[in-house]
Write a structure and sequence with these properties.
This is Flagella basal body P-ring formation protein FlgA. The protein is α+β, with helices and mostly antiparallel strands. About 15% of the residues lie in helices and about 40% in strands.
Length: about 350
């Protein structure tokens, strides 16, 4: 009986190896979304969404957008509100998300502060847009500059400014606007929309950039001597690069000192040419190999110049015979005999 069991086990193993049995493999687990709750949050409107109270990391853009827009609560009073993690988890599950695909961690409670009273001034509009862009794109406040370019509040009538519970909102945008951009600003009285119109802003973000330290023309090859890393506020999209990544690349567009270097300014990396190890008419050492036998001919003459790995013709000065060998080092050529 024991022998039959061994034979059966061996037979199954052979079948599996030969492909006769299809071994079922577990499907890879789907990627999970991370929802990390903050200790406190200040919302920009009377509605509290999950993105207001948590940092959401998810490679699935559709699921990430659904999580960000998930409504959690509405302020009924002008007081602080506290939401428990358990409540937020239930709200996520009720919205139809699979528990196994969401990792909820962070603080056990989130204290939510209501929107602060706003100043219906151009400075108040600028501050509201700055705060909203920092929140929406998870940017640290010291990494963003926002400046209102054209007057906004000054163009409103006095009747429009008489509100009991004024709020300033900015319409959400798909990506961070850099440089001079138009954003739609809304003035509300509680939940009642008073006015919505575009306003022009200058937006800049603090970022690591590579900067030229000297004048560079199209013949220059970038090195650590002519560029450096800097932290700057930039008002246009800039490639996230480090100087170390650009060493050896040739400049394709002239650059001035202090100018930011991007990928459009550089071409492919310049590969340095291998040096010539042998010049024509140089004396070389010729090493001939056949099987395990090695013969060294100390006096030979190179008839061609060659780099490492190149085949050149060499004259054996002892026999005056010309052979073809491979350059392996400075002044040394190897020949493999048949």
């Amino acid at each position: 009986m024991r022998q039959r069991r061994r034979s059966l086990a061996l037979f199954i193993a052979v079948l599996a190896t030969a492909g006769g049995l299809h071994v079922l493999q577990a499907e890879p687990e789907p990627a999970k979304a991370s929802v990390r709750l903050k200790a406190s949050a200040v919302v920009s409107s009377e509605k509290v969404r999950l993105e207001d109270v948590a940092e959401i990391i998810d490679n699935d853009p559709v699921r990430r957008a659904r999580l960000r827009d998930l409504d959690l609560a509405v302020f009924e009073q002008r007081d602080a509100l506290t939401l428990d993690r358990d409540f937020i988890e239930i709200r996520i599950l009720l919205a139809g998300f699979d528990r196994s695909t969401i990792v909820l961690n962070g603080e056990k409670q989130v204290k939510i502060l209501p929107p602060a009273p706003v100043s219906l001034t151009d400075m108040g509009v600028e501050e509201a847009v700055y705060t909203e862009l920092c929140r929406q794109f998870s940017i640290s406040p010291d990494e963003l500059h926002v400046k209102l370019v054209s007057p906004f509040i000054g163009n409103l009538t006095s009747a429009a400014l008489k509100m009991e519970n004024p709020r300033i909102e900015v319409m959400r945008v798909a990506q961070l606007p850099l440089g001079r951009s138009q954003l739609t600003v809304r003035i509300l009285d509680g939940e009642r929309l008073v006015i919505a119109k575009p306003a022009s802003f200058e937006v800049a973000r603090r970022q690591q950039v590579v900067v030229a330290t000297t004048s560079l023309d199209r013949t220059h090859v970038l090195s650590e001597a002519n560029m450096q890393n800097e932290i700057r506020f930039v008002d246009s999209p800039v490639d996230r690069l480090f100087a170390e990544q650009l060493v050896g690349h040739r400049v394709t567009t002239p650059l001035k000192p202090g100018e930011v270097i991007t990928l459009r300014h550089v071409g492919e990396e310049v590969i340095p040419e291998a040096p010539l190890l042998v010049q024509a008419r140089d004396p070389v050492r010729l090493i001939a190999k056949k099987g395990r036998l090695t013969v060294t001919i100390p006096v030979a003459e190179a008839l061609q110049a060659g780099k490492r790995g190149q085949l050149i013709r060499v004259r054996n000065l002892q026999s005056n015979q010309i052979v073809t060998g491979q350059v392996v080092d400075r002044g040394e050529v190897h020949v493999i005999l048949p």
